[in-house]
Amino acid sequence: MTHQVPPPLPQPSHLRVFDIDSIYGSLDEEVAALQREYRPLMKDWEEKYRITTRSLLKPPQGEITGWRKDGKLAVPPNLTIK
Questions:
Q1: Helical (H) or strand (E) element with 48
Q2: Cα–Cα distance for residue pair 21/78, rounded to 1 Å
Q3: How far is CA 73 from CA 4, 45, 47, in A?
Q4: Which pLDDT belongs to residue 11?
Q5: Nearest to residue 67, comparing CAs of 54, 80, 58?
Q6: How far apart are CA 62 and CA 82, in angstroms?
Q7: What is the per-residue pLDDT across 7-42, written as a single tens digit (0 to 9) for each?
Q8: Can you tell me the distance from the alpha carbon of 25 to that of 45, in angstroms, rounded to the nearest whole number?
Q9: CB distance 53 to 65 below 8 Å
Q10: What pLDDT shows up at residue 24?
C-alpha cells in the first residue's frame, strides 16, 4: 500500500479556528434562555428531578442563572439544543 502526499496548500493559506461558543454565543446562555421558554416544565422538574436555581458558587464568582442539577444546567427537551 502506497500513500500519496497531498500537494502543498496554495500560498497564502488561512485557517480559521472556532468553537461552538464563537458561533452561537455561550452554550450555557442558550440553555438558560431555553429554560425560560420552558418555565412550567422546569418548575415541574424542580420536584420530579430535584433541580434547583440556587448557585453552588460563593460570591464574587457568578454563574448563569438557571435550573441546575449537581451544578450543571438542566437542558429542556428542545431539538435545536440537542
A1: helix 39-48
A2: 18
A3: 47, 12, 16
A4: 73
A5: 54
A6: 25
A7: 877 777 666 666 655 655 578 888 889 999 999 999
A8: 26
A9: yes
A10: 56
Inform me whether the pLDDT recorded for 79 exceeds 70.
yes
* Whole-number Å distance between alpha carbons of 60 and 50: 26
* Cβ atoms of residues 74 and 35 within 8 Å: yes
- Which amino acid belongs to residue 7? P
Q: Which residue has the higher pLDDT, 75 or 18?
A: 75
Distances in whole angstroms, Cα of residue 61 to Cα of each of 13, 19, 47, 55: 41, 24, 27, 10
Domain range annotation of the chain: 39-75+78-82
d(CA 78, CA 34): 8
The answer to whether the CB of 75 falls within 8 A of the CB of 31 is: yes
User: Which single residue is written with the C-alpha cell 434547583?
Assistant: 52
State the cell numbers at 80.
Answer: 435545536
Distance CA(46)–CA(51), nearest Å, equals 5
